[in-house]
Structure formats: structure tokens, C-alpha cells
Amino acid sequence: MLYRVEGIVIRSMDYGEGNKIITICTATHGKIGVLVRGAKKSKSRHAALTQPFTNGEYLFFRTGNGLGTLNQGEILESHHLLREDLILASYASYACELLDRTLQDEEVGAFWFNQLKACLEALTSGKDPQVTVHLFEMKILQAAGYGPVLDQCVSCGSEDEPAVVSPRLGGVLCRRCKHHDPSGMTVTPGTLKLLRLFAKLDLRRLGNIDVKDSTKAEMKVIMRAFMDAQLSLNLKTQRFLDQLDKYELE
């Protein structure tokens, strides 16, 4: 069967002497693998369509649920700026790997595609990469069914001001319930306010948010704890981002 879909390249790998296999995230058909013949050749008209972060229209033939074979395609947004900057490329790669590892094959959902598209566009347009990616992480947690409970105690439902954040239990705990998680993390009012904003905000509506370095540092620790506790992913791109942070601190 012949398919025509809009997709974003979230993974690209060499296959044989001159070919590539790309994984694209689509709004209509979930995550699909497509073979692009001759993509590694210097004169290939399809080479640009296989670049990471590329948003394009892909026409391919596919039998059943197997690998598709590209017939032709058109680039809608190359996002070349992301590939030319090490920091931006690292954040964009993390977003793509996170979605790739979380989204199951054939799991259809326009939400996943739209949030990734918005994330890459935000990174390209100069939005704060760390803030952008933390918001994307929040959307991934919510789409996967693990969105944190932040407006009331995850244990008793109280709307009193929370005492701690419990990534293990999936939300905030009030003072009466904080004993349920002795490893609960304290959170400053500014960071909690930002977390609550992220829970309600669609990435497509992200504006220019000025966040203090101390708040971003606290946000990183808390979001990492949520990601580790709820999704338990061991991502190569995440480790690389950690190495970049250490390098910048030095």
C-alpha cells in the first residue's frame, strides 16, 4: 500500500553500502520505519530527507506492518540550525530519543507528533533549550499516563500548600502525608509554580519565559527524578547532556 504522511525524522541509521533506514514520527500512523535507497550517495535526491529533525512529507510503499520503502518526499522544515549547533543538536536529539523510546510502534497519536514538532520549532526559534525540553518532558509524562499531580496532595487530595514533591508517588505531598515518602524533595514556590504551568501549557503556546538559573537547576533535578521514577529510561542523549553540563561548569 502507498502512504503519504507528514513525519519528523527521530532516528537515522546506515543500512548496507548506500542506504539508510529512518524512523519517522507521524501524526496519523504513529512511528514508522522507512528504507531510503541510495541515501548515502553524494548525489542522492533523498539524502536531505534522512537528516535528523527533518520535518517532511514522505511517500512510501509498505506491506502490512513491515518496513516502508521511500518513493519520494518533500522537506517542509529542515531544522538545519539544530544540526549546526552542538548544544541545540544535543537537546533536539534528547527530545527525539525520548519520544522514540516512549512511543510504541503503531501507537497513533497526533499529540506526540505535535509536541515534538513544537519542541523542535521552539529550539530553532531561540527559546531557552532547557526550559523547552523540560516542558516537552512534562508532555511526554502526561501522554504516557504518568503526568504528575501538582495541584493537590497525591495521597489525600488536600489542596493545602505541598510540603514535598514525590517523583516516586507521582506528585506533591502535603505536610500530613509527606511521611509516605521520606525521600520526598523540597521545592521552592517559584519552581512549583513553573511545574504547574508546564502541566497546563501546550508546547505550541510556549512564549519567551525568563527563568532564573537557580530555578532551572532545581527544575532539572525534579524533572530528572520524575523521568527516572516513572519511565525508567536510560538514554544516551541524556548522558551526553549531563556531560555537557559538567563541561560548562568547569
Automatic annotation (TrEMBL):
The keyword DNA repair applies. Pfam families: RecO_C (PF02565), RecO_N (PF11967). The keyword Lipid metabolism does not apply. Residues 1-78 form the DNA replication/recombination mediator RecO N-terminal domain. Keywords: DNA damage, DNA recombination, DNA repair. SUPFAM superfamilies: ArfGap/RecO-like zinc finger, Nucleic acid-binding proteins. GO terms for biological process: DNA recombination; double-strand break repair. One of its GO terms (cellular component) is bacterial nucleoid. Involved in DNA repair and RecF pathway recombination. Belongs to the RecO family. This is DNA repair protein RecO.
